[in-house]
Write a structure and sequence with these properties.
The protein has 14 helices and 16 strands. By secondary structure, the chain is an alpha/beta fold. It has two domains: about 150 residues, Aspartate Aminotransferase, domain 1, CATH 3.90.1150; about 270 residues, Aspartate Aminotransferase, domain 2. A hairpin with a 4-residue loop joins strand 2 and strand 3. The longest helix has 24 residues. Keywords: Aminotransferase, Biotin biosynthesis, Cytoplasm, Pyridoxal phosphate, S-adenosyl-L-methionine, Transferase.
């Protein structure tokens, strides 16, 4: 059953053209890898409900931790106060982060964690009396959120064209995204480095920081780049004393196969932005993690050098408790094995899919993420999404890209079935 037209008009849905949108589906419950509509029809959640439900839906351990915490402390303002769940969460994160990422600032979602990093990097230089360092570097196609700072550094993502006049200017670098069998990747990387060097030569003294999604750009179509390219970029900008912001809102918590993408790069950025999978999909929570030298630049004898930023629900104890439990689940051997299995299944099944469907191209995988482009998919976008849903799959293509980012509880036979269904649907569009 779908919600009535009258009910549909009550809510303004995100990323939706309300005039011609497909019928809104009412979901009444969810468990494991599935969500269920009002008739109890199951749908396999192959994008983890916008990449957040890493352990699947309704995980009992996380639910219990929230319930137990709610009986003790549901919330308290975080200016001048602290609490055990917030401290414990940061201590647990420290065990899997580079040692110099040791200062944690709480916020509510991925966009705000990016806003915090941008504001901190700008004020860091301001506190050091380097007012000229107020510009940012980013990559074409980068998506960092929908608040104004995040939109500005993601200005060439295509999502925010209507707001260009309100955004600040950013120096944007071509992004050398690649795929299996890409013979042009080195040329694309050389072009990007040339543009970066040009910017550094002309504007290095005025650049505050560079922001990037390490290894893979999410919303722009799961566009992957090579680790060595990121290493080269970071090494270059650091020669000019430019801060480095890693937006791992999507890539964190083993999405790329390691706890964070930075572990594959062996780089500790100056700022790390994390959210999405942080609480296992139960509650909104985000962190901007930085280094001691950044933190110490905000210490002073008056409020002028302090970081004047905060949110009503900063470090909400319920969300922190969910995050602590989610992190413990993530560290378990059985979860790590499941992540490896999903990765291996993607690598095998995506090649099989390409061999069975001539419209599939540019296949790529990274950890638990798999993506490929489909020729002319944009012409059939609405129909494709409908066909996927009719076959019991929640999939949201990005332009002409189909991607899979399932929860870690998905079964091997489910992955196998999904690829077969996708190929059949594409071949009949």
């Amino acid at each position: 059953m779908t919600l009535s037209i009258r009910d549909k008009k009550i809510i303004w849905h995100p990323f939706t053209q309300e005039k011609n949108a497909q019928k809104i589906v009412g979901i009444k419950k969810a468990q494991g890898s599935y969500v269920y509509d009002e008739n109890d029809v199951p749908y396999l959640d192959l994008i983890s409900s916008w990449w957040v439900n890493i352990h699947g839906h309704g995980h009992q351990e996380i639910a219990k931790s929230i319930y137990d915490q709610a009986k003790t402390l549901e919330h308290v303002l975080f200016a001048g106060f602290t609490h055990e769940p917030a401290v414990t969460l940061c201590q647990e994160l420290q065990t899997i982060l580079p040692k110099n990422l040791c200062r944690f600032f709480f916020s509510d979602n991925g966009s705000t964690s990016v806003e915090v990093a941008l504001k901190m990097s700008y004020q860091y230089w301001l506190n050091l009396r380097k007012k000229e360092k107020k510009f940012f570097l980013s990559f074409d196609g980068g998506y960092h959120g929908d608040t104004f700072g995040a939109m500005s550094v993601g200005a060439k993502s295509g999502f925010h064209n209507q707001f260009k006049a309100l955004c600040f200017n950013v120096l944007s670098i071509p992004y050398p995204y690649t795929w299996n069998g890409d013979e042009q990747v080195e040329l694309k990387e050389e072009k990007s480095i040339r543009v970066l060097k040009k910017y550094l030569h002309q504007y290095a003294n005025t650049i505050s920081a560079i922001i990037l999604e390490p290894l893979i750009q999410g919303a722009s179509g799961m566009r992957i780049c090579r680790p060595q390219f990121i290493k080269n970029v970071v090494n270059l900008v650091r020669q000019y004393h430019i801060l480095v912001i890693f937006d791992e809102v999507m890539t964190g918590f083993c999405r790329t196969g390691t706890y964070f993408a930075l572990h594959q790069l062996e780089i500790a950025p100056d700022f790390l932005c994390i959210s999405k999978g942080l609480t296992g999909g139960f509650l909104p929570l985000a962190l901007t993690v930085t280094q001691n030298r950044i933190y110490e630049a905000f210490l002073g004898d008056d409020f002028k050098t302090a970081f004047a930023h905060g949110h009503s629900y900063t470090a909400n104890p319920l969300a922190c408790s969910a995050a602590i439990t989610s992190l413990k689940l993530l560290k378990k051997p059985e979860c790590q094995e499941a992540i490896k299995t999903i990765s291996k299944m993607h690598q095998v099944k995506i090649i099989e899919a390409k061999s069975q469907c001539p419209r599939i191209e540019k296949i790529r995988t990274l950890g638990t993420i798999a993506a490929f482009d489909v020729k002319d998919l944009q012409r059939f976008m609405s129909l494709a999404k409908l066909r996927f849903f009719e076959q019991g799959m929640v999939i949201r293509p990005l332009k002409n890209t189909i991607y899979l980012m399932p929860p870690y509880c998905i079964l091997e036979e489910e992955i196998d079935s999904v690829y077969k269904k996708i190929v059949k649907i594409i071949n009949t569009l």
